[in-house]
Amino acid sequence: MCAHTVNLTVCNCSQCIRYSEIDIPITAFFKGQQSWTRALVLKPDDKTCFVGRAKCYLMMGQSDNALKDAEASLKEDKSFFEGLYQKAEALYYMGEFEFALVFYHRGKKLRPQIQEFRLGIQKAQEAIENSVGNPSFVKLEIKGDFSFLQKDEERAQPVAAIQNLTTKKKQPTQKTPKSEKTTKQLLGEFYSDKKYLENLLKDEDLVKGKTKSGEQLQDVIQGCLTYLDTCTEFWNQEKPISAQERESKLQQQKKLPSAPSDPVQFLLKCLEDIDADLTSGNAEGSLNKAEEVMTIVQGWSEKEVPNKKEVLGSLHSCIGNAFIYLGDLSNALDHHHKDLEFAKQCKLPDAMSRALDNIGRVYAQIGQFSQAIEFWEKKIPLVRGGLEKTWLFHEIGWCYLELNRHEEARDCGIRSVVAADEIADEKWQINANVLVAQSELKLGDFESSVFHFERALTLARLQEDHSAMNVIQKALDEAKQHLPQ
Q1: Which of 20, 309, 360, 365 has a beta carbon 3.0–4.6 Å from 375's, enabling a disulfide?
Q2: What angle do CA 253, 259, 265 make, to 5 degrees?
Q3: Cα dihedral 335, 337, 342, 346 sign
Q4: Rounded Cα gap, residues 485 and 482, in angstroms
C-alpha cells in the first residue's frame, strides 16, 4: 500500500498518478485544448501544459498534434515520465505500435510502479501480435539478398528514426478493402451511425446547408465519415477480425480441465495463469480462474493432493488479491484470513508472512490502522531481507502517524531508515527519512525534523525526482519556520 499526500511520503503509485479514461463529451476536450493553448501563451515552455493539451488532442482523435505536444514536453527533460506516457499513447493511436512499445518500456523503467506503463506494454504487444502474428507460429527461411547488411555506423539508428517521426511525413499505407460484414464487426454500435451519415450525404438539399459557425454540412458529414474510416483501419490493425476469431478459439482451448492427469503440473500452470491475469490488470479473469480451480481442488482427496491445504491457502490468497484490485475489500479480507488459517495449520512461515502482509494492507486501506499494525507486527519475526524490513517498518510507522502516536511512528521510521541504509535503496531512504521528519515535527523536535527533511531532499535530488523534491521542499520550509531565529 502507499502513503498518500496526507503524510507527505513520496508516492508515485498508480492510485496517486493515473491517466484515467473518463466519459466526457468531446466538446469538453475541445474547450480543454483551448484552455491549455491559452496557458502556453503565458508559459510557452511549460511541460505540464503540453501534456495536458496532448491528452485533449488524443481524446479528440488528433494523434499527430498529440505527438507534437508530447515531444515538446520532453524537449528539456527526456525523463519526464508524463510526457513519455503521452508520446507512447499518441504513437499507439497512430498505429505505430512498435515505437509506442519503446516509449512504454522507457517510462516503465523510470517509474515501474505506475500501472499505465505496464498496461501500455501489454496492449502494444498484443496489437503487434495481432497485426503480424505470433512469433512462435512464424517460420523464418534463410534466403534472399543480404546486401543491405552494412557496417554498424551505416545502419539507420532507431532512436533517430523515432525522433524524426514528427518532422517526416509517413508514407501512405495501402488500405485493404473491407466487406460490409467486416466493417460492421469492427465498428460495432457505430456502424448504424456510419450508415446514417452516408444516407445524409445523399440528400443534396441538406448537404448544401451550413452550420451556425459557417461550415458546409457536407464537409462536416464527410469529416465524420473519414474519422470513422480511420477508426475502422486502426481497430483492424490493432485487432483484425482474424485475430479476434483466433483469440476466441484459444479461449475455448484454455478452458480448465475437470480431471487433469497430472495434478501438480495442472496446479502450477493454473496458478501461473491466475497470477499473469492479475499482473496484466485482468482482475476479474484472475478471480474467475482462481474460483474455478478452487472448486476442482476441493473435490480432490488428500491422497491425490497431499498438500491440499497449502494449495487452498494459495488460492485464497489469489482470490483475496483479485478482490483488492476490484475494490471489494470485505471479501478480500475474508479470503486472506482463510489463507492465514491454512498457513497456521500447515505451519508454513512464508505463507503466514504472505497472509499477514495482505491482511495488514487491507486494514490500512480501509483506515483501520490499529488492526493493520496488529497484523503487521506479527509479521516482523517472519521478515526476510532488508527491502521487506524497510517497507514493513515504514508502513507500521505510517499507521502510527495516522493514529497520532508520534513517538512510535518516529521509532519505526528510524528502524526503516537503518534498514534502507543497509541495502542502499535510495527510494526507501527518502520515504523513511520523510516519515521520521514528520514524526519529529509533531513531537516538537524541529532540528531533527529539519535534518531528516534535508537528507530526504538531498536523496531526491540525486534521484532527479522533481515531484518528490517539490513536496519535501515545502515541508522543509514549514519545519524551518519553527527553528529559533
Answers
A1: 360
A2: 75
A3: positive
A4: 9
Amino acid present at 447: E
Coil, strand, or helix at residue 101? helix
Grid coordinates representing 280 are: 496484466
What are the cell numbers at 392?
514493513
Tell whether 421 and 472 lie within a shared domain: yes
Q: Is residue 139 part of a domain?
A: no
Residue 419 amino acid letter: A
368 Rama sector, left if φ>0, alpha if ψ -120 to 50, beta otherwise: beta
Which domain does 308 fall in, by range? 256-382
**Euclidean distance between CA atoms 318 and 324, whole angstroms:** 10
Identify whether residues 400 and 484 lie together within a single domain. yes
Nearest to 420 by CA among 446, 453, 394: 394
Whether residue 415 is found in the same domain as residue 446: yes
Instruction: Give the DSSP letter string of 254-307.
Output: TPPPSS-S-HHHHHHHHHHHHHHHHHTT-HHHHHHHHHHHHHHHHTS-TTT-TT
Instruction: Show the CA angle centred on residue 415, arms to residues 410 and 421, nearest 5°.
Output: 120
C-alpha–C-alpha distance, residues 453 and 479, integer Å: 9
- Please list the pLDDT of the chain residue by residue as tens digits (485 residues): 343 333 333 343 333 333 333 344 445 666 777 888 888 888 888 888 999 898 888 877 788 888 999 999 998 888 888 999 999 998 888 888 878 888 888 888 888 778 788 888 888 877 776 665 544 444 444 344 433 333 333 333 333 333 333 433 344 444 444 566 667 766 666 777 777 778 878 877 777 777 666 667 777 777 777 777 766 666 665 555 555 555 555 554 444 444 456 777 888 888 888 988 888 888 899 999 999 999 988 888 888 788 889 999 999 999 999 999 888 999 999 999 999 999 999 999 999 999 999 999 999 999 999 999 999 999 999 988 888 899 999 999 999 999 999 999 999 999 999 999 988 888 899 999 999 999 999 999 999 999 999 999 999 898 888 888 888 999 899 999 988 87
3-state secondary structure of 201: helix
pTM of the model: 0.49
Do residues 302 and 352 share a domain?
Answer: yes
Q: How many CB atoms lie under 10 A from the CB of residue 467?
A: 15
Residue 187 DSSP label: H
The contacts of residue 124 (CB under 8 Å, 6+ apart) are 88, 92, 97, 98, 100, 101, 104
Query: What single string gives the DSSP state of each residue in 25-77?
Result: -HHHHHHHHHHHHHHHHHSTT-HHHHHHHHHHHHHTT-HHHHHHHHHHHTSS-
Contact assessment for residue 334 and residue 349, using Cβ atoms and an 8 Å cutoff: no
